[in-house]
Specification:
Blueprint lengths: L1 H14 L7 H23 L3 H23 L9 H29 L4 H21 L5 H9 L7 H20 L1 H9 L1 H6 L4 H23 L1 H16 L5 H26 L3 H28 L1
Helix pairs in contact: 2-7, 2-10, 2-11, 2-12, 3-4, 3-5, 3-10, 3-11, 4-10, 7-10, 8-10, 10-11, 11-12, 11-13, 12-13
C-alpha cells in the first residue's frame, strides 16, 4: 500500500513539475474536465443525451469539411499552425451551430423521433468525416491526429485561449443559471413570466455549441462526449439540488481528467481513451452503489 502511495505522489510531482514537457496538456485536460460537465448538465436535464453523442461527431465532420475545401482549392492554404486551427475552429463551429438550429427546428415541428434524427446525424457525420479525410489531398495523417485529439501538443497560446473561452462559458452559465434552468425545466412557466424562451434557448445552445467546438478541436469527439455526459450522469445519481448537481459533475470531471492523465502518463496509454474509460468505470460503480444503497434502504 505504501509503495503505491509513493508512486502516486511521485507521478503527481512529475506531472506538476514546471519543467514537465506536457504540463500544458495537464492543465487543458483539467479545464475540459471542469467545464464540459457544466454544459452537459443541461443536455441531461433536457433529456438530450443523444445530442451529446451526435454533436461532437458533427463538429468533427465540420473540421474535415473545412480542410477538404482547402484541399480542393476553394479556400486559401494556411501554412501556419494558427491558420490551420482557425480554419478547423470555423468549420467545427459552423457545423455544430447549424446542427443545433436544425435539430431545434425539427423538434419544434414535432415530426419524427428525436433519437432517430440524432442517430442518423451521428452515423452520417462519422461516414462523411472519413470520406472527406481519405480524399483530402493535403494529407490524411495530420487531420486524423487533429480529430483524435491526443491532448499532447498544446501551446501556451492555445491553453490561454481555451481557458479564457471556457471561463466565459462558465461565467455565463452561472450568471444566467435561473433563466437557463427555467426554460429547460418549464418553458410554459417561462412564457407566463414573460421570458423570451426562444432567446434564452438560443443563448444556451450557443454556449453548448461553442464548448463542443473548442473541445473537439482540442481533445477530439470521444473525449468531448465522455466529459459532456458521464460526469453529469454520475452526479445525478447522488445530487439532491441543482447546485449539487452542477458542482459535483464539474468536480468529477476535473478530478477524472487529472487522474486519467496521470494513469496514461505512468502506463504509456492514450490520454483520451484513458479518460473516457475511467469516466465509464466511475459511472458504473456509482450506479451500482446507488442500487445497493436503495436495496438496503428498503430491506
Amino acid at each position: 500500500m505504501i509503495p503505491k502511495f509513493f508512486l502516486i505522489v511521485q507521478t503527481l510531482l512529475e506531472v506538476f513539475d514546471p519543467d514537465f514537457l506536457l504540463h500544458n496538456s495537464v492543465y487543458i485536460s483539467v479545464v475540459f474536465g471542469l467545464t464540459c460537465p457544466l454544459v452537459g448538465v443541461y443536455l441531461v436535464l433536457r433529456r438530450l443525451v443523444f445530442m451529446g453523442v451526435a454533436l461532437p461527431q458533427i463538429s468533427s465532420c465540420g473540421i474535415a469539411f473545412a480542410f477538404a475545401l482547402q484541399g480542393w482549392g476553394l479556400l486559401p492554404h494556411a501554412h501556419e499552425t494558427a491558420g490551420e486551427h482557425t480554419l478547423a475552429f470555423l468549420g467545427s463551429t459552423v457545423f455544430t451551430l447549424a446542427a443545433i438550429v436544425l435539430f431545434s427546428f425539427l423538434a419544434r415541428r414535432g415530426h419524427g423521433s428525436v433519437e432517430a434524427r440524432l442517430g442518423t446525424a451521428y452515423a452520417l457525420a462519422g461516414a462523411w468525416s472519413v470520406l472527406l479525410l481519405v480524399k483530402n489531398p493535403i494529407g490524411e495523417h495530420g487531420l486524423l491526429d487533429l480529430l483524435k485529439g491526443e491532448i499532447i501538443a498544446i501551446s501556451n497560446f492555445e491553453l490561454v485561449l481555451t481557458a479564457a473561452a471556457f471561463s466565459l462559458v462558465a461565467a455565463a452559465l452561472f450568471v444566467f443559471r435561473k433563466e437557463f434552468l427555467l426554460v429547460s425545466f418549464d418553458p410554459d412557466m417561462a412564457i407566463s413570466l414573460k421570458k423570451n424562451v426562444l432567446l434564452w434557448d438560443a443563448g444556451l445552445f450557443l454556449l453548448i455549441g461553442l464548448t463542443i467546438s473548442i473541445s473537439v478541436l482540442g481533445a477530439g469527439p470521444l473525449v468531448t462526449f465522455g466529459f459532456l455526459l458521464f460526469p453529469p450522469l454520475t452526479a445525478r445519481l447522488f445530487a439532491r439540488t441543482m447546485r449539487q448537481f452542477a458542482l459535483l459533475a464539474s468536480a468529477l470531471g476535473g478530478v477524472t481528467a487529472l487522474t486519467g492523465f496521470c494513469l496514461a502518463y505512468r502506463w504509456d496509454l492514450p490520454v483520451g481513451a484513458t479518460d473516457v474509460a475511467l469516466l465509464g468505470a466511475i459511472y458504473a460503480l456509482g450506479a451500482l452503489a446507488r442500487r445497493v444503497a436503495a436495496r438496503w434502504a428498503h430491506a
